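To: structure subgroup
Subject: Chain for Friday's discussion

All,

I'm putting the inputs and outputs inline so they're searchable in the archive.
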Amino acid sequence: MQACQAARARFLRPFVAVLAVGVLVASMGTVALGQWRNRPSPSALSYARPDSFDGAFQFCRVEFRRASNGDGGGWDVDYPRADQNLSIRLSELTKTPVSFDDRKEPNHLLIHLSQPELFHCPFIMMTEVGNIYLDDEESDNLRKYLLKGGFLWADDFWGDYAWAIWESQIRKALPSSAYPIVDLPLDHPIFHQVLNVDHVPQIPSIGGANWRYGQTSERGAASATPHVRAILDPNGRVMVLITFNTDFGDSYEREDQDPDYFHQFSVIGYAFGINALIYGMTH
């Protein structure tokens, strides 16, 4: 526990001088964080319903079907603790109102792209998108959602084959002729929205690479370079954020399992994640 608390202290120090961003973000000097704790998984999946939304932030995770020729896991990788933990850190490190239940756990939701409730989510997350399949209805709904101002973050897929599966499916919603995929430069606002992130981190699964010795690529040479990519709307707003050859979700899910992993990957993972959420909700 002492090692964990020391890691937490190292995590907090870079955040102390962060200033407010609009009405959402607070000075980090006023934030008081609770102790680490193991948060229970929900006893039942929390699907979005018309009465699920209370006006505060809720993490919306997309449940999707797996492609028959896909690569990797599925929609539920890192679920539910990544959803819970990033929501909690958003509430602690900014003034963003976050929805909590009576147990003081975040009200995070699962959503299908075919649901009308999709349009109540300002932010949606997909993981392991190298294994995604979208039908025509889902693709059409996703396109409408994004062009109306929605924000999608696709995370945790590795290697060229997984990329090809993902690109083939997202192109059903956003064709390449009108919506190219670009690498975001480090001076893009998403790297500096709240906290400064000065490089693209490669975050491995806590058990998936020999990260203690600097080996962070989960597919060796095939996934050696991490990328932060995006699809922009006609006004230049990021509407699809794509983190490829890296696993931000694990940096949230596994924050309490190893102080070294926390210090090396969760610190920068949360910095980027907070930036992404605030960017998505203010642009």
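Points worth raising on Friday:
Residues 7 and 263 are 6 Å apart (CA to CA).
Strands lie at 60-62, 65-66, 109-111, 124-127, 132-133, 152-155, 181-183, 227-232, 238-244.

D.
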